[in-house]
Structures are given as structure tokens and as C-alpha cells.
């Protein structure tokens, strides 16, 4: 909600109510509070890329993956609805025909100069950094963040990814964060073009993060965890 909200404020304020740095910081703060709110309930599973990566490497039961992803997408859908309700008058003023503001809710290529393939690569790289960073932050044998500082560390990681790799694709790095609001924008009047723009671009912020997350987790395990003492077992492994 914080993420879509700040994008709405920047876009609908036409540059007078914030800029790109505001977006980076607010997305990070949204992640911070999301982790604090859900950490004790689900382990802060807010992102299908995180959920599936943990399952791939045996740190989450597969039976939990689908329910978690459904909850993640539903939560993002509801968040988009709330942002739309708050800013509805401005949406009607700035974009009454709903032709230019779909980017408030979901990610799209920065411009026609950025190929879809480049956006896909950006999502893979960004999410690989996210999962590699999350694995490092929680690695008990590699100077981990304390349980109290882990949410802040992950939030700063998200801010850094946005500041370094956000331009091409809008750094979804979370399929639910993109698909849920995209589905809402379809229902709210932006039409099927939210799924068909740029050669049906919608698949990029879904598949890219899922692939990138698995790569990032695998690289961290292969290059770092593999060198831990042989009798070490990750606390999340069954």
C-alpha cells in the first residue's frame, strides 16, 4: 500500500509532491512495516519469489506455497483498491480516460527504448540480489543481522535495488506486488491493455522475479553456505 501510494502521489502530483527517491524510500519503508506486521504470523512471506525460493531449497514446505501466494496477491489487490479509493478524485482529474496512469499500480518498461528482454534481465538481476541479500542477512554463520535489525536490513536492500536497478522495469522484484494491482487496474477501468501493452509485458514481472530469486538463493548457497562447517544445518531446513 505504501508503494502504490507513493507512486500515486508522485504521478498525480505531476512532480510537485515527490520524485523518484521518494518512491525508493517509501517502498523500502513499506517492506519494513510489512515484515514487522507479518513476521510473527508467516515469517514475513510478502513475496512469491521469496516463498518459492525458500521452498526450492528446502526451507519451506511446498504445501504452504500456493496459500501464501494467493494471500500475497489478494493483499496487493486490496492495497491497490485502497490507494485508488484515496486518490480517486485526482485520477479522474489527471487521467479521466484512464490512458496514462496505469503505471501507478503495476510496472511497465521505462520507455519504448528499453526492450522487453532488457526488462526481464533487470527483474532477474534485481530479484537475485534481493534473495541473495536475504539469505546473507539471515545466515547465522556469516555475520547476520540481529532478529531486531533484519527488517531494516531487508528494507535498505530493497531501497538499494530500486536506486541502482529501478529504471528499466520499475523493479517489481515481487510478482504479487505487480500482478495483484495490475488485476485491480483491469477491474477499475484501465482495461485489458494493462495486460497487452508492450507485447503482453505482464509476464515479465512474474517470471523474472521467480527465476531471479532461485538464481540468487542458489548462488549464495553455492558460494557462501557451501563453505560453512559440514555439520551445519540451516535452521529452516527440515
Automatic annotation (TrEMBL):
It is a multi-pass membrane protein. GO terms for cellular component: plasma membrane. The keyword S-adenosyl-L-methionine does not apply. NCBIfam families: MIP (TIGR00861). Gene3D superfamilies: Glycerol uptake facilitator protein (1.20.1080.10). Pfam families: MIP (PF00230). The chain crosses the membrane at residues 65-87, 120-141, 153-173, 201-223. Keywords: Membrane, Transmembrane, Transmembrane helix, Transport. It is found in: Membrane. Belongs to the MIP/aquaporin (TC 1.A.8) family. Coiled coil: none annotated. GO terms for molecular function: glycerol channel activity; water channel activity. It comes from Phytophthora cactorum. This is Aquaporin. The keyword rRNA-binding does not apply.
